[in-house]
Amino acid sequence: MPSNASKQGFFCLTKRGFSGKKDFSEALEIIAAINARPSAICQCVDAKLVAGREHAIHAAKLCLEAFRNRENHVQKKELEFLLWISGKRNIEKAMLAFGIEGKGELFVVSASAKSRNEAERAMKRLVAELEIRALKEKRGRSAAEIRRIMEFYGIPEKSFAAFPKESRETVLEKLVLEKISLLALEE
Q1: Can you tell me the distance from the alpha carbon of 135 to that of 176, in angstroms, rounded to the nearest whole number?
Q2: Where are the beta strands (DSSP E) in 31-92?
Q3: For strand 40-46 and strand 3-7, is the pairing parallel, antiparallel, or unpaired?
Q4: Where are the domains of the chain?
Q5: 8: pLDDT confidence band, cut at 50, 70 and 90?
Q6: Residue 52 in contact with residue 148, Cβ under 8 Å?
Q7: Fewest beta carbons less than 10 Å away: which of 155, 157, 171, 178?
C-alpha cells in the first residue's frame, strides 16, 4: 500500500521498491505525459539518496508550487522535481544522483494539487509500467547509507546532537528537509 499525504489540496503517494524493467524509455514517456497536466507531478528516482517519504513529498509540493507560481528553474516538471529532491540547482548533478539506471531500489512519487484520484491514477499507471515490486517491510538504513546522504546534502555529524532522543534516520530526514526548505527561502 503506498504511503500518502494530503495538505490543503495537495495529495501525494509514494512507493518504494524494485523494478522488473531494464528499459525505462516507455516509463519516461508516461512520466512526461502525466506531468503535462498542470496539477500533477510524477517521477521515479533512485532511492539511495532519498532520506524518506516526507523528503519526497516535500520535493513534490515545492515542484508543483514552483510551476504554479511560475518560479520553476526548468521547463519540465520531472526535472524540476529532481532539483528540489536533490536540494541543488545543477540539473546535471541532480540527474546523476537520482537518475534511474535499471538496478537498485526505486522511489516513485505521484502528487496532485487537484485530486487524490489524479495522484492514484498516475501512481497506478507508473507502478504497472515499471513493474514495481514493493518492499514488504521497511528496511533501516546502514551507517554507510546514512553517511552517503549526509555527504551529498552537506550535513555535518554535529547536527545530530540537537536531537539526542530520535533515531539517526528520523533526524537525517529532518535535516534534509531543512536544507531543501532553506533553498526554497533563497528563491
Answers
A1: 23
A2: 40-46
A3: unpaired
A4: 3-137
A5: low
A6: no
A7: 157
